[in-house]
Amino acid sequence: MKKLVIFTAILLNSAFSACGFYPYGEDVRFYFLNPENFSYKAYSSFYYSSLSFEQNPKALISNQDNEKLWRKYCSNKVAVEDISLVLENYNLSGIHENSANPFLRYLYSKKDVEAIHYLKFAKNCEYFNTWKDDPWERNENTVTVKRNDLLNKAISLASKSRKVDFKKRYAFLALRLAFYSKDMKSIEKIYRQHFSPNQTNDVIDVWALYFKAISEKNPALKNLYFAKVFAASPEKRFVSFQYFASKVPVTDVLNVAENQTEKANVLLLYGLYNPGKNLENIKQIYAEQPNYDGLSFLLYRELGKLEDWVFTPYYSLFSTDDDLGSDSENENVLKILERSGIDRAYAKQVLEFIDSVDLSKVENPHFWKYTRAELLFMTKNYTESLNQIAELEKVLPSEDLLRNNLEIIKTLNLFANQTYGNAKIPDEAKEIIIKNKDNKHFIFAMGRELEYLGNSDDAAFLYASLIRSKDDYNYVYYKSLENSNHTYGTYYNDYFDYLDAVYSPEKVVSFINKIKDLDKNPDSFYRNFYSVNQSEIKSLYDLLGTKYIRQNKLNLALNAFNTLGEDYFNEQYSLWEKDGKAHYFSSGKIFDKNPFYHLKYTPDFIPEKEHFRVNKISVTRKLIEYLNKANNLQEKDRDYYYFLVANCYLNMSQYGNAWMMRRYSVSSAGNYSIREDIEEFNTAGLAKFYYGKALENAQTDKYKALCLRMQGRCENYKYDFISENTSNSYSREDDYEAKRLGKNKYYQNFRNNYSGQYEDMISGCESFKSYFKARR
């Protein structure tokens, strides 16, 4: 766990300010589909994300169709890996009869001069089949001339070659050279002579069609050709997608398609371009070609969308279309949950479609049944989802990776399918949870389900485990149901921060009691899943006491702090000499001033009669002591102790030097939050009250004037807070003089009753010392 002492104000200011980091898009997206568990890696560049498509490096690995074609040419007597080595890594000089490569040795042993000549020619063309010319264009003319010479030679060799295989290969090299020469006319001519869009028998035909599609002038035919290339060649999928013109009406392209397969190919690409609901497109493909793997992949993508649209808002309370938190409507968690409900209705429509499908006709029935199980979970039909999962578990091979995703959805069903107040971590799910303990979104989702069902202890236990995950790159960002559009920038990725903001003292006590004796818990799951260390428990007692401070339950706060002892606070919160040197353990968090005698931005005016090590426990103890003295009717200096108490409460606000009594961080960007003492922290209302008590017991006009002056200062903090956080409020741009005189009743009282001291006191703080000294 992050130690409290290293939570610096600078870090939190960066994290929560409008100018700092704010999670959105992929940062907040919830998903359980693991692409590695499904059979659609050939489409990996098009897996669902909230971002635009990008080339997946794994997708650059071809299906080795060209290598397989060469292996067939070699009567299957050469390994694909040996062929690939020559095609990918050898240069022209590497092709010789003394080569140790089995592919080259085979060709030379067969005295296959034509194949060897072709390989040498292809290697000679490689440099010219690229856009990577001289950046200063010093050799542009030379390259152009050389490329055109090779183009003409390739055309000649294609016409002279005796073997059909090499006619096509030379012709394909000519197409590539013409493309890099930007010679569309030559592409059209060469393609017409050696290829046909209706004959795509091997990889050479498909690659040739790719260049034909680039040169095609008819937009509908261009799209049709790219759709055919996309379907036939995984290696060319991303570039085909980029060239595909989605703005061309789909009906125009379907009209030039000659069969159902071509129509399905076209519809697939239009489906990939659709970032929204794509069910109608999926239905069309099913009608044309139900056994198409592209259809299953589009269903996979649709499930990915639904995970984002349903689970992201439901579990994280972030909007799926939240643009850097700029839209206040997107930050209202109740509105976000409403949108999640709307998308659950769409999930039901997709489910109804699957129920209408003949699964014996689809390419991967197991995947379709898995999708059905997850959609049932999305639509909260937990019992039927578990039934579907049980059916799949019986037929899936034990080594099938789909089982892992199936177990995750099964576990989420088991968690969600419980009643409020009776939810727990189901025994049946514990082994699965331990196996997937580094899947942060999965672990958090289970915690959220428990939290929604009233089990805050186990929810916190699961949240806390995220800090020990081996996955250091993915974070779960989430909000609270208490968030509103007033709490800009309030989000969490650490359980302590979340408990700090959301959990009541009673819930913190319950959680502490649960985890402090985990080693004695007869249920081994808790010990095996997550081991809580003593520093975490100490931090939670610190939090408990801090929460009681926020509620102004000082005795309960002191009890919590006493559990930790003096040494903990001396180490964590004291700026005190240690071994003869000032101990700066955490700059910005340490009590650098005694909050009873010193005020920020105010020259010292109260003699410091008591010297003690200042930290949370000592301040709490002393505050109780001074309050007891101030409330004692027999105490002759009640006005004095009320004033010290008021100073402490003022310093415990965001304007003071003891804000760490109530917070673990403050921000210059604003300190509005969902913590229960938000108004007190921003307005110092208790300080105003106790300055008023000091005024009631004051015996001199000067001292009364000082008390009123301090009440007026706190009253201005209230106006600042109102103006920042309400719409119908006193504008911050209003004249300061009008605010302090026109609305501040304490300053009005001050001016009306102590006019002789008014100008002296209101103009600055330099005279505070003499006014306090005049108390007696």
Tell how many strands the DSSP assignment holds: 2
> Which stretches of 5+ consecutive residues score pLDDT under 50?
1-19, 323-330, 577-587, 728-735
Oligomer: single chain
Strand order of the largest sheet: 1-2
* Largest sheet features: 2 strands, antiparallel
The number of distinct helices, counting runs of at least 4 residues, comes to: 38
The overall pLDDT average reads: 88
> Which word captures the global form?
elongated
Give the tally of structural domains.
3
Structural class: mainly alpha
As a percent range, the share of strand residues is: under 5%
Helical content band: 55-70%
Radius of gyration: 37 Å
Terminal Cα span: 52 Å
Signal peptide: 1-18
Protein name: Tetratricopeptide repeat protein
Organism: Chryseobacterium caseinilyticum
Keywords: Signal
Question: Top keywords for this entry?
Answer:
776 residues; mainly alpha; 3 domains; two-stranded antiparallel sheet; 1% strand; elongated; disordered N terminus; signal; Tetratricopeptide repeat protein
Question: What's this, in brief?
Answer:
By secondary structure, this protein is mainly α. The chain has helices spanning 9-16, 65-73, 80-89, 102-109, 113-125, 140-160, 164-180, 184-194, 203-215, 219-232, 237-243, 250-256, 260-273, 279-288, 293-316, 328-331, 333-356, 365-378, 382-395, 402-416, 430-435, 440-452, 456-465, 495-502, 505-515, 524-529, 534-550, 554-564, 566-573, 616-631, 638-651, 678-683, 685-697, 701-725, 736-742, 745-753, 755-762, 768-773; strands at 577-578, 581-582.
